[in-house]
Amino acid sequence: DSFDILGDGVKELLVGRDDGMIEIYNFESADDPVLRHDYALSESISSIQGGCVGKDGYDEILAATYSGWLTGLTTEPVHREGGSGEELKLSQEMQNKISSLRNELEQLQIKVLQEREKYQQSSHSSTAVSSVPAFSVNDKFTLNKDDASYSLILEVQTAIDNVLVQSDVPLDLLDVDKNSAVVSFSSCDSE
């Protein structure tokens, strides 16, 4: 997207990447864009948009991720400083918002406990049937021309415990900065 998130009168380029990076590029010179800010999310970004959403006067970047999360980055200051010995006073609107969020959180916690109890009861019954939930896999296998390697990116809406890669030809697995996986090799039977 293009949006004036920095408030300088010139639109910046907002980029959401498959690796989870949000980048803001500014066009200070006419030739090349300059990276001004970046922020890393834990999953790929499927959509990005700039605008004023949450509070008048403070622009934001909204990004939708692969699993459906909506993440917002705002220009509103997060911290307020008070003088020495001064107590921070919240407006009535902010106090109402905090109270509403606390109530919603308590209701969600109760609902989770009820559903967990219901699941426990149904899983111990004699008529319980176990099944593997269906989920979609977002996968990409792309060639990196710079070092003649391929990048395999797997993304699912649940935790990935193990990935088995089987090949008819010998493979060298390269580690990357964002990778938290532990790689183990085993030789394959030729049959």
The stretches of 5 or more residues where confidence is low (pLDDT under 50) are none
Q: How large a portion of the residues is in β-strands, by DSSP E?
A: 25-35%
- Largest β-sheet summary: 4 strands, antiparallel
SSE pattern = EEEEEEEHEE
Overall description:
The chain has about 190 residues and is an alpha+beta fold. It has a domain at about 1-70. Helices cover about 15% and strands about 30% of the residues. It is built from one helix and nine strands. It has one helix spanning about 90-125, and strands at about 1-5, 10-15, 20-25, 35-40, 45-55, 60-65, 70-75, 135-145, 150-155. A four-stranded antiparallel sheet has the order 1-2-3-4, with no helix packed on it. A three-stranded antiparallel sheet has the order 5-6-7, with no helix packed on it. A two-stranded antiparallel sheet has the order 8-9. It is flat, with a radius of gyration of 24 Å. The N and C termini lie far apart (about 50 Å). The mean pLDDT is about 80.
